[in-house]
Write a structure and sequence with these properties.
This protein has helices spanning 3-18, 23-32, 43-54, 59-68, 73-79, 85-102, 107-120, 125-134. The chain is mainly alpha-helical and 142 residues long.
Length: 142
């Protein structure tokens, strides 16, 4: 790796440290700096990690997040071709994290809030109910 590639990588990493950026955004910023488009090609993977791990979104929520950032649909489909258990595992992680904060509320209120929060993050009703049953929350109407 020559000096200009190293500087381009450092600049790209600095931009990504502020927030996740789409390939389009990175390409424009790097182009302004005189760097080739190839330096921005890995940002889609970074956005996937941000959406699934940091924001705890479902795969469909991550798809929506990346589309909003300007990632082409073909690249998103290729990246999100992971196993089907990703949504379930992420939903469980989210519920575990939120149950600590919702512990002071009555169970029906906590369940309703969890259900709605997961729904807004793009999880299917089937996945949500499965996770809430696993956490021994009573099956009642939302």
């Amino acid at each position: 790796m020559n000096g200009s590639d190293s500087k381009a990588k450092q600049y790209a990493l600095r931009l990504l440290s502020y927030r996740g950026r789409s390939e389009k955004e990175m390409a424009e910023r790097l182009r302004k700096r005189g760097v080739s488009d190839a330096a921005a090609s890995s940002t889609a993977e970074s956005l996937k990690r941000e959406a699934l791990v940091n924001k705890v979104l479902s795969r469909s929520g991550a798809r929506h997040f990346m589309l909003g950032r300007g990632i082409p649909k073909g690249i998103i489909d290729k990246i999100l071709r992971d196993d089907e258990n990703t949504d379930y595992d992420n939903a469980r992680r989210f519920v575990d994290k939120r149950l600590r904060m919702l512990g002071r509320y009555p169970e029906i209120t906590a369940k309703r809030r969890l259900y709605n929060q997961l729904l807004r993050r793009g999880y299917s009703a089937e996945t949500i109910i499965k996770v809430l049953r696993e956490k021994n929350m009573k099956e009642e109407d939302q």
